[in-house]
Amino acid sequence: MSWDWQVFCEDTIERQTVQGCFGKGGDITYLDWMLSAWGWTVSVSLLALLLALVIGIVIGTMRTLPDRPIVVRLGDAWVELFRNIPLLVQIFLWYHVLPSMFNVLQGVPGFVLVVFALGFFTSARIAEQVRSGIQALPRGQRYAGMAMGFTTFQYYRYVLLPMAFRIIIPPLTSETMNIFKNSSVAFAVSVSELTMFAMQAQEETSRGIEVYLAVTGLYVISAFAINRIMAFIEKRARIPGFVVAGGSGGH
């Protein structure tokens, strides 16, 4: 078996080798296509991550509010709904079902709908981690904030959440890496990301090994970059001597 990496220097129309491997004058090589697909993968992942962090932090915090049973139940319902429906099913619901029910979604690009589906799905997981991080804090931290005269919003903002975020950085790293991998299901609604590129390029070139190895390498690079960025953040945010004690910071 011989490998032919020159396939990435071929244009996608006539399959002619292009000097330098990058298309010119409107020609697109398989390398151009793969890098464009990588850009779509990164874009979907980062936007979905931003959405998931915002919603996840809000929902996770809601689930720990004292003396707010209705708010807690709403947060629990969100987590149970989006965590227990498979991601692929949620993407199909956003792409095929919801636009038929709500006219405002009919003109929304599939890229945006995938961001919503992936962001909402991941927000349920991040909400659970935020809840766990808050409840892992010693109970005295909440009482200290209350003793200083802080409102509920203030002692969450200045006392509980900053410490909880430091605790949940490792699981957030895993979720950030997962969101890049989960973005591969976007191919199901024709978003031109890495997995769709790999499937189509393999069919056109019959060079599946080279194509899938290259795509795998880009996923590895993405995951490694995320890991290093989150490790840097964790190191910078670490409080020397801080050890999480058992408690009920959220109750």
pLDDT under 50 segments (min length 5)?
244-251
* Form type: elongated
User: Mean pLDDT, rounded to whole units?
Assistant: 86
Q: What structural class do the secondary elements suggest?
A: mainly alpha
User: What's the SSE pattern?
Assistant: HHHHHHHH
Number of strands: 0
Approximately how much beta-strand content do the residues carry? under 5%
- How many angstroms does the end-to-end distance come to? 63 Å
Radius of gyration: 23 Å
How large is the count of helical segments? 8
* Helical content (DSSP H or I, runs of 4+): 55-70%
Concise description?
With 251 residues, this protein is mainly alpha-helical.
What keywords describe this structure?
single chain; 251 residues; mainly alpha; 8 helices; elongated; disordered C terminus
Give a structural overview:
The protein has 251 residues and is mostly helical. It is built from eight helices and no strands. Helix 3 (87-101) packs across helix 4 and helix 5 crosses helix 6 (152-182). The longest helix has 33 residues, at 30-62. The relative contact order is 0.15.
Question: What's the SSE blueprint?
Answer:
Blueprint: H1 30-62, H2 69-83, H3 87-101, H4 110-135, H5 139-147, H6 152-182, H7 194-205, H8 208-237
